[in-house]
Specification:
The protein is mostly beta strands. It has one helix and ten strands; from the N terminus they run ββαββββββββ. A hairpin with a 3-residue loop joins strand 4 (60-66) and strand 5 (70-77).
Length: 138
Amino acid sequence: TYRYENEKGQRFFVCLFDGSSLSENSGLLHGFARQKQLRGAVQWLSGKPLAVSCVGNPELYVICRKDEAGLTVGLFNCFADEIVPAVIELADGYAEAQWGIREGVLEGNKVTLPCIPAFGFDFFRLEKECIVDMNWWK
């Protein structure tokens, strides 16, 4: 792969393979190195960090929703190994976390969950300001 920026400031990330012809089992798009490469490319293309990322877990699927008050994150481990610990990097800082299944730790722009089991999931809500309602998911 390579990155290119033209004289107009347009950015391109070029993969030297035909992604549409890859089989799911080829391994070309799955793996730790490819995950880091794609995360870096998306950040370079957009000019800003991803809202949420968890590098080192290529079969972890992250869904997030950002609004004025904060960020809601769902993490789905679609692999036979547990993730211990799950370290989630954030683009922004948040004041408070509300935990879904397992209680984690919020430190600056990072959330650490103790684990996400094999074929398991977890979720949490991050608030920009401290709030009182601890039953936000009900």
